[in-house]
Amino acid sequence: MTKTDRIRNFSIIAHIDHGKSTLADRLIQRTGGLSEREMSAQVLDNMDIERERGITIKAQTVRLEWNGYELNLMDTPGHVDFAYEVSRSLAACEGALLVVDAAQGVEAQTLANVYASIEHDHEIVPVINKIDLPAADAEGVRQEIEEIIGLDASGAVLASAKTGIGIDEVLQAIVDKIPPPRGDADAPLKAMLVDSWYDPYLGVVILVRVIDGCLKKGAQVRFMAAGTTHLVDRVGCFRPKIEQLGELGAGEIGFITAQIKEVAETRVGDTITDAKRPAAQALPGFKLVQPVVFCGLFPVDAAEFEKLRESLYKLRLNDASFSFEMETSAALGFGFRCGFLGLLHLEIIQERLTREYDLDLITTAPSVVYKIHLSRSRKDRPSTGSGRTEEGEHESGGSIIELHNPADMPDPNRIETIEEPWIEATIYVPDEYLGPILKLCQDRRGVQKNLTYVGSGSHQRAQITYELPLNEVVFDFYDRLKSISRGYASFDYHQIGYREGDLVKMSILVNNEAVDALSMIVHRGNAEARGRGMCERLKDLIPRHLFKIPIQAAIGGKVIARETIAALRKDVTAKCYGGDATRKRKLLEKQKEGKKRMREYGSVSIPQEAFIAALRMGEE
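The structure assignment produced for this chain is given below.
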């Protein structure tokens, strides 16, 4: 038996909250990775946010020893925003433990992660977790796995990660069912860069999966995509504490450091090979992650701009999927336009900036990337301002630009068509909430593709497939879905390309001045309702001044909604304690003139809290 025959590389995949991290804890505990004293709940979730929210954000890896076998475990995130972390981890493994909650059954992201795993040609071992719950129905869930996913679940391991039931059976199933890695120990070195992060003491730490050959300490290695050469100064693995090794052989997962200062130099999916004896061809790698949602981040205190810039650079060291560029706003000053993979990603970044770097931030309304086809009548090409990139020629001769920021929308007369991104969403929901959820999708311009029922008895649920515009989902779709279904609906989506839409830019004017931070791109059919909602909210948020303030929502020159904030009235006649009515009238006339002058020259100060509250679309 060769060394690779005793290696098993596997990941744990599941829907959010089905017990991945707890199962990882039990496996570490059972194989003696940490002593009882060193154990803590969610031991692989090392960010405070991960522990508090009970979610995994970064995929983590750990090496376990059991009965003479080396088990390399990858704990993956369950949330749709972090699907790229899952796909990277899966590429480094030969099999996966599919964890399904015995009370909840198969959910939307269970399905999405299983399909990703099948794409990588994995051996999947079903584990039915939480069998200790009173509502557990292991037999029903076993049928569901077979019906919905099409996996043979007759040998599914029944376990409870919380109480430790069935952990030995899980370990045995990993050894028996997951195949050992295939790799040639004598071939030239070929290793895949799975992940990288910045450590203040070690520099950039690179997580690698060795495919062929051997990766030794002191070796001169070449990154094939980046074209750079580095000297390996540390080789090791996590158990989960760092353990230094002399080398990593074929099929093994571990880490290296090579005195690299920038995470940007270590592109995920790159192939690492020996500089003196390189591999003939690189590994296929991963497709680059593209930001889906954009929004502006501005410091509440303008003096903190430099601090924000430094913090964003530091954050990007550990999160290559996050991008940003500088932008300015008349209302909010200097800030950054940032790109995220989804709303949870945005929320996590915002919370980390607030917590770890002690910043007070304003976030503008999130928007997606639109493709704008400009008409060819104009000879000149549009300048590529902030948030827009020239993309190329349209077949009809006009050019196409990408729009990240609604404030940069070109003149409507130059626009031929606007395309917006669409997604295909899969929603699982109990039958009693089906009506309101179909209405929600319909209101968000959804197109129903499929409606079937899965499971049986108490586990029967509707599976709905909808095509939806992404800009209708990024605001508050997920929150609305959860509140309508009392948390029972599960939701997963993937992008399906761009489609033409009847989209317009809606500007918000306060005292006849446009507030660029509040402008947004909306569908013409929803513009009036969205505009009215925004005006009503601002009316409650902006404090009254000594003059009347009109708040308007407008498309181009046409006002579609309006609210007026009444003036504060100072009682100028209070000092009149006698005399005839003309004295009072004279004072009131004088006040009227003053108010008229004020309305012309007065400026309305919108407090920062009003911006923050107006940009939170959740209360609509």
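Interim note for the steering committee: The chain has 14 helices and 33 strands. The chain has five domains: 4-177, 190-274, 293-364, 368-501, 505-619.
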